[in-house]
Amino acid sequence: MQSDLFSAANEIISSQKKVTALNFIIAFNNETIEKKYGTLINDLIVKSNNCVIYIEHADFISQRNRLFNVFIVDNFKSFNRIYSRISSDTFVIDGLYLIIFIENISMSDIEQATRLLWDLFIYNVNFLLKDSGEINLITFMPFTKEMNCGNTRPKIINQYVNGSFWSEVQYYPEKLTNLFQCPVKVVTFNAPPMMMIKYSDDSFQLYGVDGEMMTALAKELNFKIDVHHISDLIRWGSLVNGTSTGAMRMVINNEVDLTVGMYTITYQRSKLMTSSEFYYSVPFILIVPPGSTLTSLEKLFRPFQLHVWILLLLIFVIAFITVIIIRFQSKSVQDFVFGKNNRSPILNILNGFLGSTQTILPKRNFARYLLITYLLFCLVKRSLYQGALFQFLQKDEQKSEIQSIDELVEKGFKVYMLPSSLEHTQNMKFKNQRRAVNSTVLSEKRLETLNPLSQHAVSSSLEQILYYNKLNYKNNTLTVCREYLFTFQYGIYFRKNSYLTKMFNKKISLFKTAGLIDYWSSDFISNKYLNMKIDSDGPKKLNMEHLLGSFELLAAGALITIIIFIFEILAVKFRIKSMQMFFEFFV
């Protein structure tokens, strides 16, 4: 009978073709029994030579992950010795386990063993044992049609009779593909646009990217979502100095099964919880104030770019220098170039550019050609300028916002963020300018960035900004620094080593491959709302604010004219020849 027990074990082990390493862990309380079955145990190990074999004693288990494990024990007490050494550092929790009991063991002990293993989320486990002359293969099914949720009652799934098992069913059947409407406790909160909760009477609806995904997971795996809505002021919570708060505390303390809602996958969180594979990537950014509004004079220079103004200035400088040089030539040369009796060529250059009339027209063809060419040039430039200026005056043009992190640091901006974001930004250039605040204060600071004079920035993920701008694009929109900090990867956090992780990951991978995550996100997020400019519904009437720059320019010109006029009077009154000659020459 004992040889049949080991033959049955060999058949189960041999059926796992993909196994590359096999871990035998032996525990006996009775040395006599250990010696008695030593030869059979050695034969079993020798027959399993199609992969790498590890043989260890229960009291000397090294720290490495073990995927396929065979425990050989004589009684429940021996099993407990191995059980006390099980952790995620030494075993793959959702790996395969075959537990061979050499001596007779009661079903109550087996049920106690299944409860202990389920407490560690170990479910791919089979017990091979003798019972009333029969060799039974026993497991437990945690979820069944009878709404047995977390059921650990032992169940015989096969028997070894006459040298073979009576059934060719899977030795390790799938147990978590259908949860039969068992409740899964989910702690979550409102975190638009990823997670939003809408209550109506006694029911609720999850929407947003995370909400749609959770609903789809519940449908695919056939479980009921038991929502635990934590305060939106606490939300994720934080992990500081070994303590936890918020939704993460509830997961770590085993109060719920998982938490979802815009969770970034981090090293610190993954030490205390188990994360799913990431399903959504998004940049982490800083909200900055928009550029300040242009002054009235700055608007006058807006139609042309800087290099155009430089080129125009260069043309005037060349024209003035040419006039000065020719003024030192003979009168016949001046008449040939300027035209006869043209005493103010410099003023005429300015008049032509501004569209004023020419009081004295040249008689010679060369002078006429120069004048016509110059006037046509000025006409084109003036028309382009006037057309562009009219459009710019009607727009609320602004200066450029902060473009880089270096610029933000240089200007000494404070950077507000949630405590959970401190972990991600501890090596950033602005680390000394960070301020940790709660979500209420953060929302207030975010709205303050709408003021161009604000001197702080607010951290955020990109999709939150896009969603806010989508809802408020007719009133106000948030501006972001164009230099992104890094990319967030969102995931679901489960209790440590949760049995849900593997099946959730399979479904999430399918959702990603099918494009469902992107499809759900398209309902709430669009890149067209990034740093968008709010346009008016129609043309605006020009008011004093629009035209203030031209009045300022007129006032400046009038002031210069008065000053020149005063100097002319003084030059004549006090007979200052040099000043008279200067005005005669240029004016």
From TrEMBL:
The organism's taxonomy opens as:
Eukaryota, Metazoa, Ecdysozoa, Arthropoda, Hexapoda
Q: Where in the cell is it found?
A: Cell membrane
Entries under Pfam families matching the protein: LBD_receptor (PF24061), Lig_chan (PF00060), Lig_chan-Glu_bd (PF10613)
GO molecular function annotation: ligand-gated monoatomic ion channel activity
Its main subcellular localisation, reduced to a broad class, is membrane
Q: What is the protein name given in its UniProt record?
A: Ionotropic glutamate receptor L-glutamate and glycine-binding domain-containing protein
Report domain Ionotropic glutamate receptor L-glutamate and glycine-binding positions.
193-253
Q: Which domain of life is it from?
A: Eukaryota
Q: Is Transmembrane helix tagged as a keyword?
A: yes
Read off the Gene3D superfamilies from this record. 1.10.287.70, Periplasmic binding protein-like II
